[in-house]
């Protein structure tokens, strides 16, 4: 099924229409529209201060947009919608905990609030790898463990739609991989995940689609695959230095640029197959490495371009000045 067909046939989990939010003279979110379908794993990326948390909290019904509307499963989360609460799970960037409770007590309290069972609390503690910390006071957990408890608090009642704001930020590499498995499992169960991250490798691994937010506006929305494809960023072929001289490499059909980096001759190309077969005939492929462009390349290129050349502010009656003859 194509992306477009899927969009038409699967119900919408999150519908965001023309949402804006301003703090003083800072336009944190600027006219964002977005649809996330049921079962989708959606990533929101962007530099610090881009408006990710503000946008996610508006979707969650924790903040109110100045203008625009949000619907989760067709219902507005604002003002506080108790019918929606059991269906959504929320981990905010600065999570609050019940003080003087152990990890297990905290999670049981959260579970009880949602009418989830004690067994669910035990199981979820296991899911996030905190079984060994069940009797540790929350204030004595490490940063990463506390973050996992916050994630567990978002999952304990088995919500259909899960919002996670930088869930992997404080995690060590192993804990991060473990959480990927948890998130993949949730997706496999058909749940919808909306999350923010600064880890582009992770977004590329996990997300069906991502949006890149810059200065409160969505710069692009697409699958990581399509974004990398459409960027036409070159691949880089690394040859052991001395294998082929620079001029010969530069003269090969399909080679855009040749540089020397870290003991390798680096050939940039957008026709990898063609250049590889030419190299194979000339010098053989032993020790030749291929680096394909990644989402990180696309992201860095896009955010750098937009920072240099921000889109012109939309002209309004207030900002338009008439030239007087
Ligand atoms: P991100 O999550 O992408 O880092 P945020 O949504 O937290 O971005 O913030 C977007 C912008 O809005 C930033 O410039 C931030 O300083 C500002 N901001 C966020 N929350 C508030 C608030 N409660 N009051 C004033 N300014 C805020
Ligand atoms: Mg944030």
First CA to last CA: what distance?
59 Å
Structural class: alpha/beta
Overall tally of structural domains? 2
Mean pLDDT: 90
Computed Rg: 24 Å
How much strand content do the residues show? 25-35%
Helical run tally: 11
* Level-2 CATH architecture of the largest domain: 3-Layer(aba) Sandwich
Q: What fold name stands as the CATH topology of the largest domain?
A: Rossmann fold
Number of strands: 13
Strand order of the largest sheet: 5-6-7-3-8-9
Weakly predicted, low-confidence segments: 314-325
Shape category: globular
Q: Could you name the CATH homologous superfamily of the largest domain?
A: P-loop containing nucleotide triphosphate hydrolases
Instruction: Name the helix and strand elements from N-terminus to C-terminus, one letter apiece.
Output: HEEEHEEHHHEHEHEEHEHEEHEH
Short description:
With about 325 residues, this protein is an alpha/beta fold.
Layout of helices and strands, plus pairs?
Blueprint: H1 3-9, E1 12-23, E2 26-37, E3 41-45, H2 52-60, E4 67-72, E5 88-91, H3 103-113, H4 118-127, H5 143-155, E6 161-165, H6 173-188, E7 192-196, H7 200-206, E8 209-214, E9 217-222, H8 224-231, E10 235-240, H9 246-251, E11 255-261, E12 264-269, H10 272-282, E13 289-291, H11 295-308
Parallel strand pairs: 3-7, 3-8, 5-6, 6-7
Antiparallel strand pairs: 1-2, 1-4, 8-9, 10-12, 10-13, 11-12
The structure holds adenosine-5'-diphosphate and magnesium ion.
Magnesium ion binds at residues 52-53, 93, 165.
